[in-house]
Specification:
With 527 residues, the chain is α/β, with parallel strands linked by helices. It has helices spanning 95-109, 127-132, 155-162, 194-197, 220-230, 290-303, 321-332, 391-401, 481-492, 497-503, and strands spanning 72-73, 91-92, 151-154, 165-168, 171-177, 183-189, 204-209, 212-213, 238-245, 251-256, 258-261, 265-273, 276-283, 308-312, 319-320, 340-345, 356-357, 379-384, 405-410, 418-419, 423-425, 428-431, 435-438, 451-453, 461-466, 514-515, 524-525. The protein is 19% helix and 23% strand. The strands form eight sheets. Strands 12-13-14-18-19-25-24 form a seven-stranded mixed beta sheet, with helices on both faces. A four-stranded antiparallel beta sheet has the order 8-7-9-10, covered by helices on one side. A four-stranded antiparallel beta sheet has the order 17-16-23-20. The two termini are 31 Å apart.
């Protein structure tokens, strides 16, 4: 990933240099002031009697129970969460209480707690700045940080995401170049969103917003204006977008930012082929409401008697492990029923938990405790990219552990075998690595991702084909490069050179850039 497009898994501080549009804060809805975690110390006002350098009662090597500081807040919230309808648990405390909570909780639950730095909370102005540093400083054998997934966000953002709601246009972006001449494209559009109602489609290139030139702008003022318009900081604002689809004449639409209900299962389709019907599912987020959408999708595919499924996870950064387990069961059914899906490994302070099986009943809404429908497949074709992370990778690993044949079509996945029990305190939700997982065969070390390969090694190499994302075609179009390759591979068992060559030359741009998503959405949450 190039340095000017810093989507790192710790959701870094906002950075801007002349001529560059950054998008690390994409889903925080602003680049001017990040709403998520940072990569290092952040200055902040102290609202208690502590001051930088003051130990404020801190003693090295001593940790009180996190429960002693839980919900003691410098500015307690009152009322109820608009997403959960639960009362805020805040009680009157201080900034120091909030800071003291963080190391105690980390020391209790962090997977590598022995490697935590022991730092004086009085030296940091905010709990979030302090939390940013409470992770291992060790590196892997290849020299990269051992913990690249340490972050925080506002609890309102966390609850909004879990509810399947964003505040934007409903446009999901893919970027091929962040420096002039920039190339920002629409990867897909949420159904029913302001962008969808305006007629925006996958593959459109954004040329201008309110006459600010997204392709060539270099001034600080222009870049600030473009950042605000790409990722609006509030709902209700409307801006004019100049778009171009392929080589067609550019056109303009005005789009108003608002509350967008996301569609975890973006598309379900049945494809007629010469050797049977193939189901195609675009799955973009492991949130609770995905369960109901998956049940509807599987019921449709069962009725159509599909013989295979192509599961499109190219834009799926993860989410709830329970949803990953349910999805895997609904695909494989009787072939995995009663088998182990995921065995979690935590630090030595935690009581060993029971492994998670392939879940065959509903957990949420009106499907709770009801049997899930299933296709009973023995093989699955999965479309992947560098944005396929965490809970999505757990699907790949869990199915392979149960001897379901998985074929990967696309690119290497992001490599995130770790998970969290998110912890909310005083309006901030903290995510620190607390577990890693393994499948029924004991394999779980895929920090470099799963790799489409000519042969399967039962570890990180998965049989399949390497192919780029092709936004010149709509998702579900049999001519779209990744889907077309999967269908051809299913029919022939090989990654045809002639087909690949043809796919590499669509009429418009062939894009294999970065899919913009807040790295904090690359989640594996135990729930």
């Amino acid at each position: 990933m190039n340095d000017s497009f810093r989507l790192t898994s710790i959701f870094p501080f906002c950075v801007k240099s002349a001529g560059t549009i950054f998008s690390v804060c994409a889903l925080a809805l602003t680049l001017a002031a990040c709403g998520g975690g940072s990569s290092g110390p952040v200055s902040g006002d102290l609202t208690d009697n502590s001051s930088p350098g003051d130990n404020s009662g801190w003693k090295a090597g001593t940790y009180k129970k996190s429960a002693d500081f839980d919900n003691l807040c410098a500015a307690p919230r009152s009322g109820y969460s608009k997403f959960t309808n639960e009362a805020f648990p805040d009680k009157k405390g201080s900034t120091l209480d909030e800071k003291n909570f963080v190391p105690s909780w980390s020391y209790e639950t962090y997977l590598w707690y022995e490697e935590l730095p022991d730092l004086n909370p009085g030296s940091y102005g905010t709990p979030q700045a302090y939390f940013d540093l409470l992770k291992t400083n060790k590196v892997t054998s290849s020299g990269v940080p051992k913990d690249n997934f340490h972050w925080w966000e506002s609890t309102e953002d966390a609850e909004s995401w879990e509810s399947g709601i964003t505040y934007d246009y409903g446009i999901r972006l893919k970027v091929n170049s962040t420096t002039p001449p920039r190339k920002y494209y629409v990867a897909f559009v949420e159904p029913g969103s302001p962008a969808a109602l305006a007629g925006v489609k996958r593959g459109a290139r954004i040329l201008k917003i309110d006459n600010y030139d997204l392709v060539n702008e270099t001034s600080d003022a222009g870049i600030d204006a473009l950042n605000e318009r790409l990722f609006p900081s509030k709902s209700g604002v409307a801006y004019k977008f100049d778009l171009q689809e392929g080589t067609n004449t550019p056109y303009s639409v005005t789009i108003q930012a608002g509350e967008v209900a996301t569609s975890p299962v973006l598309l379900t389709k049945v494809l007629e082929t010469s050797n049977g019907k193939v189901g195609y599912i675009v799955f973009n987020s492991h949130v609770e409401k995905a369960e109901k959408q998956w049940i509807t999708a599987i019921q449709q595919l069962k009725q159509e008697a599909v013989s295979d499924v192509v599961l499109d996870l190219r834009y799926n950064g993860g989410g709830l492990l329970s949803i990953a387990s349910q999805v895997s069961y609904m695909l494989a059914g009787s072939n995995v029923q009663g088998k182990l899906f995921y065995e979690q490994i935590e630090n030595s302070k935690q009581r060993k938990t029971e492994p998670m099986p392939f879940l065959d009943v509903g957990l949420y809404s009106d499907y709770e405790n009801l049997d899930l429908p299933a296709l009973n497949l023995s093989r699955v074709y999965i479309l992947t990219s560098g944005g396929t992370c965490s809970a999505s990778e757990a699907i790949i690993n869990g199915l392979r552990g149960a001897n379901i044949q998985v074929y990967l079509i696309g690119d290497t996945t992001c490599g995130k075998p770790y998970g969290y029990y998110p912890e909310e305190n005083c309006g901030t939700t903290y995510y620190t690595i607390q577990l890693k997982g393994a499948n029924a065969k004991g394999f779980g070390e895929y920090s470099d991702g799963f790799i489409p390969s000519t042969a399967d090694d039962n570890k990180t190499k998965v049989k399949g084909c390497r192919v780029q994302d092709d936004i010149d075609h709509q998702l579900g179009d049999p001519k779209e490069a990744m889907l077309a390759t999967a269908l051809n591979f299913r029919a022939s068992g090989v990654c045809s050179a002639s087909v690949s060559a043809k796919l590499q030359k669509p009429q418009g741009d062939f894009i294999d850039g970065e899919f913009i998503t807040k790295e904090s959405r690359k989640l594996l949450i135990l729930k």
